[in-house]
Amino acid sequence: MQLYLPIAEVSVNAFLLLGLGGLVGLLSGMFGVGGGFLITPLLFLVGIPPAVAVATSANQIVASSFSALLAHLRRRTVDMWMGTVLLIGGLLGSALGVMAFNLLKALGQVDLLVKLCYVVFLGTVGGMMLWESARATYRARSGIAPKRRRHNWVHALPFKTRFRVSGLYISVIPPLGVGLLVGLLSAIMGVGGGFILIPAMIYLLGMPTKVVVGTSTFQIIFLTAFTTLLHATTNQTVDVVLALLLILGGVIGAQVGAQIGTKLKPEHLRLLLALLVLAVCGQIALSLVLRPDDLFSVEPVG
Amino acid sequence: MRALLVLLALLLGLAPAQAEEIVLGLSRDQVAITATFDGDDILVFGAVKRDAAPPVGAAPLGVVIAVSGPLQPLTVREADRRLGIWVNAAAVEVDAAPSFYAVATTGPLREVLSSTEDLRHSVSIPQAIRAIGNDVGNREDFLDALIRIREAEGRYRILEGAVEFDQQTLFRTQIGLPANLLEGDYPTRIFLTREGEVIDAFETTIYVRKTGVERWLYALAHDQPFLYGLLALALAIAAGWGASAAFQALRG
């Protein structure tokens, strides 16, 4: 069934969009990531204009994060204070990101910026996860208990504050910085930023794993809501019909994914996620290196 | 335009003024973009009205129909290899290019319409784009690329021989409008030709409009963007909440 999207002004098969939402929902349910890093490039492939794809996937992430946040609030695995500090950095970064986006759009280099960001960040995070999960698998087999470092340079900075739920007493500077980086990426790449935020919270801030996902969901929901409003008021590029189809497919996929996720070992899950992230990264990297089919491209102004 | 032609004919002292002219009909002049819009066909038909029988031995008539979509400013970019990766290097601004353009004829375009007449009336795709006053300097290859890309996307079409012409009097053709249609006015021109020369021209407009929910959402997004943004967020939160509640009820 073809559906004409009122804002994107393209006609797309409704079941294709439901399927895309479902697929991304399945993965986000399995791995606990928002899936923005998958849905934005997939929407480009389907023929949605990039500006609409970036803005609408932000709106879709609000929906999928909201149902996840409710579950985390019930389990009391959200550090509100940490989330708020991350969010302050995030909003600042998001505003900077929109400025960078508009500047590069005028220069015609936005595609390049988005692709380079994807390659660098997906490559780094995917590689780190692959290394870490391979080590965890090896340890689990040989029975060596993992060491956890208690102190690093993060603990030497000023403006310390107590994050009660996380059981941390650290400076606000690292969470502000992490939030800023994630906000920047969220505006440029059309992602929630969970795939950067979660490793940063574990390895850099030293937060306990059980509060990491809930807290990142808390910060992502406000950040993507802000991004949605920003895009809606400045560019009019949020398509609610497109968002609703993705959300509908996504919520069903997420429930199925969560069921599959509980049946797999955590280190195997991380290994699979690492491979998935690296596959997306490799595909984008290839498109930068290979000669395009047509050297010319056409793009409407504004 | 017709007055000019009449004047021209009189000045040159050729055939009697306006012996053959176009009477036009459209299957409809409104196209509604609804939620399930999946492209549409417009039937353009008409007849040739004659004051007198055509001169004996005169060449057969030809019909050319050109439908243009609303004009848009565009940027055409050319990629080049820098430091091992492909980067957009050169760019040309095209002030106004039609978002859709179709030319349907009774036969091969150059036989039906001479290049002089094409230049004068800007009928074929390259002429139509140049006629708008787009100045691309010496980079003609950018305009060629624009036309090539849009032809591949099905936005620009040349339909040679697609106009049926019964007994040199009744003509009709189907113009297929793509699913990715932009809202706006679609000027439609019909030319009656003999031996490549235009002997009559007729112009009308097809109006393409969004209707229903499409219209309402589009208007809201542009007139009340903040309210629209809040609506989008409310929908997202309601959907997230609803899904969470529904699956909890299922489990519990």
Short description:
Chain A is mostly helical and 302 residues long.
What would you say this structure looks like, in words?
The complex is a heterodimer of chains A (302) and B (252). Chain A has 302 residues and is mostly helical. Chain A has 10 helices and 5 strands. In chain A, β1 (2-4) and β2 form a beta hairpin. The mean pLDDT of chain A is 80. Chain B is extended and about 90 Å long. Chain B has helices at residues 2-12, 109-112, 115-121, 125-131, 140-152, 212-223, 225-251, and strands at 20-26, 30-33, 40-50, 61-68, 71-82, 85-98, 101-105, 156-159, 164-166, 170-177, 184-194, 197-210. Chain B is an alpha+beta fold. Chain B is 32% helix and 40% strand. Chains A and B meet through β1, α3, α8, α9 and β5 of A and β5, β6, α5, α6 and α7 of B.
Poorly predicted residue ranges of chain A: none
Which class do the helix and strand fractions of chain B yield? alpha+beta
Total beta strand runs of chain A: 5
Count of β-strands of chain B: 12
Report the sheet with the most strands of chain A, covering strand number, pairing sense and barrel closure. Answer: 2 strands, antiparallel
Tell me the span between the first and last alpha carbons of chain A: 30 Å
Q: Strands across the major sheet of chain A, in which order?
A: 1-2
Overall radius of gyration of chain B:
24 Å
Describe the global form of chain B: extended
Radius of gyration of chain A: 19 Å
Layout of helices and strands:
The complex is a heterodimer of chains A (302) and B (252).
Chain A: E1 2-4, E2 11-13, H1 14-31, H2 36-46, H3 50-74, H4 80-107, H5 110-142, E3 160-163, E4 168-171, H6 173-189, H7 194-204, H8 209-234, H9 240-263, H10 266-289, E5 296-300
Antiparallel strand pairs in A: 1-2, 3-4
Helix pairs in contact in A: 1-9, 2-3, 3-8, 3-9, 4-6, 4-8, 5-10, 6-7, 7-8
Chain B: H1 2-12, E1 20-26, E2 30-33, E3 40-50, E4 61-68, E5 71-82, E6 85-98, E7 101-105, H2 109-112, H3 115-121, H4 125-131, H5 140-152, E8 156-159, E9 164-166, E10 170-177, E11 184-194, E12 197-210, H6 212-223, H7 225-251
Parallel strand pairs in B: 2-12, 7-8
Antiparallel strand pairs in B: 1-3, 3-10, 4-7, 4-11, 5-6, 9-10, 11-12
Helix pairs in contact in B: 6-7
